[in-house]
Amino acid sequence: QVQLVESGGGLVQPGGSLRLSCVASGFTFSTKVMSWYRQVAGKERELVASISATGGSSNYVDSVKGRFTISRDNGKNTVYLEMNSLKSEDTAVYYCQMGPFWGQGTQVTVSS
Q1: Helix then strand then coil, % of the chain, to nearest 5
Q2: Edge to edge, what strands does the sheet with 78-83 contain?
Q3: In this structure, what are the phi and psi dihedrals at residue 19, rounded to the nearest 5 degrees?
Q4: What are the pLDDT digits (tens) for 25-54?
């Protein structure tokens, strides 16, 4: 069965960095678009970034452009989200997504 397992969240100060990882299994990873979403309690889940199957193209929500980078390693069935210059408004649960499938989420808290 499809599994998406995120890791790498935590508490970081404003201006800091984190790298999230999502290890996928149960499908042919190298053929699927992968995405990261985030959700704040009481708000709708928001698409943060997506990356094509080959990794050749990606797109981002405006609020993270220039600060976040999505990448993938098809040999390791893993998609990453490198987050730099973090702001308090980036605080959320971050989810890995492929089609109808979601990971369990990893909490990112940006606070001094």
Answers
A1: 10, 50, 40
A2: 3-7, 18-25, 78-83, 68-73
A3: -125, 120
A4: 999 999 999 999 999 999 999 999 999 999
